[in-house]
Amino acid sequence: MKFKGVYYICLFFLIGSFETSIGVDDTSKPDPLDGVATARWLVSQNNWGVLSTISIELGGAPFGNVVSFSDGLPDKGCGIPYFYLTTLDPTARNTLKDERASLTLSESPIGSCGKADPENPTCAKLTLTGKLTLVTENTTEAEFAASALFSKHAEMKGNDQNHNILLLSSLFALLRTLILSTIFYLQHLFNEIKNIIATMK
Amino acid sequence: MKFKGVYYICLFFLIGSFETSIGVDDTSKPDPLDGVATARWLVSQNNWGVLSTISIELGGAPFGNVVSFSDGLPDKGCGIPYFYLTTLDPTARNTLKDERASLTLSESPIGSCGKADPENPTCAKLTLTGKLTLVTENTTEAEFAASALFSKHAEMKGNDQNHNILLLSSLFALLRTLILSTIFYLQHLFNEIKNIIATMK
């Protein structure tokens, strides 16, 4: 059985204004006044978000899709989100045509917002924008990304063999395409996000 | 004190393939094989999602933003998500330049996915696309939308008076602009979503 488009893809976000070194302590919430650390914490703590791309089918309209991701082994997040997608899904197809993308995260799913509304700035929000790019297969980065993904999303690893899931949906069973990502983060956007969008506790 | 851009905005999604009548029972999860009912249930049960627009600042790149929304009073969802946004926020500014938008929801925050991965098709996902449009002030729809929003997001109602929130962040305090939405839903897209993206239990 053949599948359309098997790719390793890497999304680079250059987080130019990040002053902390790669590798964050994602076990405790940072000082909310430290936007950079809080952004890294959000990436490390969340295991899913919404990846927005430019839709081919909709003539250039924006298209958001729920995706699982990982930025590293548990408690060892590197700040770089990796995705496991397929070109059977519009998001991956869109990316191969136009690599511009944004990944949007909320603190709400983590459960640390208490009773604050998800739109309340005390409940952190983060939008990362950059380019979604294929990761080269059989490289150290591809190996790291696969390890990062499978450590947080065990179901991904067994997709090919899990016939129960195959029966539930051909989509999930066909998730053979690995879209791996790092981030080229635009500093001016990050500053804007820090000030306007990703208001932290 | 004056605020930039005070608008009532309405996003219309025409959900052409919806066979159920307006008004869903959002207290119990529908049969997962009924994609339409499950989509309505997801809209009704979630109180936040990611609204993606075409970014002005980023030259047409997609930009997703965490937003709170409501489609009606609790247990009386109408299937039409309403938003309370401000043009101090890029999403609203983008919308006034290009009204194309998508709203992306996951079943994961509802808590009914169990241990399933958010990317597992047994954990429902939904992407609605359409046009984000200003709702006319002082109309029945504006009144309904405000009621829908404030019933599920009590913090929104008191923004002007809540000086504690004002102190926490100028952004949330300045949420005076009401973006209210219904959806012009593209049926061919809905069918695609039903088959590929929004795979339900």
Automatic annotation (TrEMBL), chains A, B:
Name of this protein: CREG-like beta-barrel domain-containing protein
Record-annotated CREG-like beta-barrel domain positions: 30-165
Transmembrane helix as UniProt keyword: yes
Gene Ontology terms: cellular component: cytoplasm
Leader sequence segment: none
InterPro entries: CREG_beta-barrel (IPR055343), Split_barrel_FMN-bd (IPR012349)
Species of the source: Aquilegia coerulea (Rocky mountain columbine)
Keywords carried by this UniProt record: Membrane, Transmembrane, Transmembrane helix
Membrane-traversing stretches: 6-24, 165-186
